[in-house]
Amino acid sequence: MIHSRVINWIRKQYLRKFFVISAVILLVASILAFGMALQISDSVERTQLNQVESNAASQSQYITQWADGKEVYLSTYADHIESVFHSSPTNKVHIHGANDSSSVNNHSFVSNSFQNTSKVTMADTASRNVSHVLQEEVSNKSGSLEAFYLIRSSNDSSRSGVVTHSSDTDRINKSVSDLRINLGETSSDELRTFGDVRQSNGFVTWVYSRSGNKYMSFISPVFEDGYLAAEYNLSTQDNGIQQNVIQQQKDTDTYILGGVSAYVMFGNSSTSSFYPYSGKQNATIIGQKILNREDTTTPISGSYIGEKSVIGYQSVSYDEIDWVIVREVPQKQALAITQRVQTDIIYLISIMFLGFIATAISARRSLV
Fold first, then answer.
1. From start to end of 143-285, where are the E strands?
2. Which helix (H) or strand (E) holds 185?
3. pLDDT tens profile 33-80
4. What is the largest CA-CA distance in the chain?
5. Does pLDDT of 115 surpass 50?
6. Alpha carbons 234 and 270: distance in angstroms, whole number
């Protein structure tokens, strides 16, 4: 009897120690697993946030290349227009369609050599059918190039000007304000003038709306006192921005915001109006960053988790374009891997706790 009691006492002591040690091991393992779960979850989440931001950066880079190609094309074509007037009136000048590209070598302009190197002013264009030349170039182009304007400005400090020649003859003698062309502002919030165009050897206007469409013009100085503007209709489906930025990926909303106003200029909506992002300019992190910038050329980028989506943003790194690209990806899509990792870790911790409970029940029965 005494021997049996001693054995039972030793067995109970052993089971108690086993129970305590098992509880400690399981508790420590659970704490470590929980900590590891948080680290893994945060790491995966950060990777996915960076991916959304990286996608916005890729779209920003595309717009930079797009704008650079348009500007190089216009500069080359402006030089060609000048060559038309430097050449002898008896010589014929042929213009072949040019593809706007970042490489000047892709432009197929053919003209006679200069017969007269004297300076040309806008007054010299009065007797020449420049509009026909501009019409031919637009007709040979595909995409969103809508019109060319040859503009005469009263002086370099002015923002006003008159169209003297155009590929759209209905717009001849129209003023820049009639066409709603908005020269925009400098990075120091000063109104830009045609003098700024000549000083910088060309620039890009702000986006403006007319007749239910949104436009942007690239302007280059031409002759001694004129300016050549190439106007692009950015509301068409084949303008590059719609195809390769806004509609680039399904189940993802992409917006292009103005870098001064934080208003949406382009988005999945077909509206021709400009409106605040998320209903109010300063209601979002992105809006606040845009409005709080002292200089519109200051780059901004980042990503964060919103109420229903993961949001990445990146400013366009182009001197005369202060746009900000915003991409919104639904959380269930962007954080799918994070949610799966979290679910698997919860299952793992749950199994560990079930094992702890099973051990406790087994030990308790043995002690009875």
1. 145-152, 162-166, 203-204, 208-210, 213-222, 226-233, 253-257, 263-266, 275-276
2. none
3. 777 767 776 777 788 888 889 989 999 999 999 888 899 999 899 888
4. 133
5. no
6. 11
Can you tell me the distance from the alpha carbon of 285 to that of 311, in angstroms, rounded to the nearest whole number?
10
pLDDT of residue 364: 61
Helix axes 2-86, 130-139, angle to 10 degrees: 150
**CA dist list (Å): 161 to 21, 132, 133, 150, 332:** 88, 21, 21, 10, 52
Torsion of CA 144, 150, 155, 159, to 10 degrees: -20
DSSP 8-state assignment for residue 247: T
How is residue 72 written in tokens?
């190089």
List the helix and strand counts (H, then E) for the chain.
Answer: 7, 14
DSSP secondary structure letter of residue 177: T
pLDDT value at position 105? Answer: 37
- What is the DSSP secondary structure assignment for residue 61, as one 8-state letter? H
Phi-psi region of 149 (alpha: psi -120 to 50; beta: other; left: phi over 0): beta
3-state SS string over 118-135?
Answer: CCCCHHHHCCCCHHHHHH
* Rounded alpha-carbon distances, angstroms, from residue 133 to 81, 125, 202: 9, 12, 21
Cα angle 214-65-267, degrees, rounded to a multiple of 5: 35
CA-based R_g, the chain, Å: 33
- d(CA 127, CA 360) in angstroms, rounded, equals 102
Give the C-alpha separation, 33 to 276, whole Å: 45
AA letter at 135:
Q
Whether residue 69 contacts residue 86, with contact meaning beta carbons closer than 8 Å, is answered with no
pTM: 0.72
What's 196's DSSP letter? H
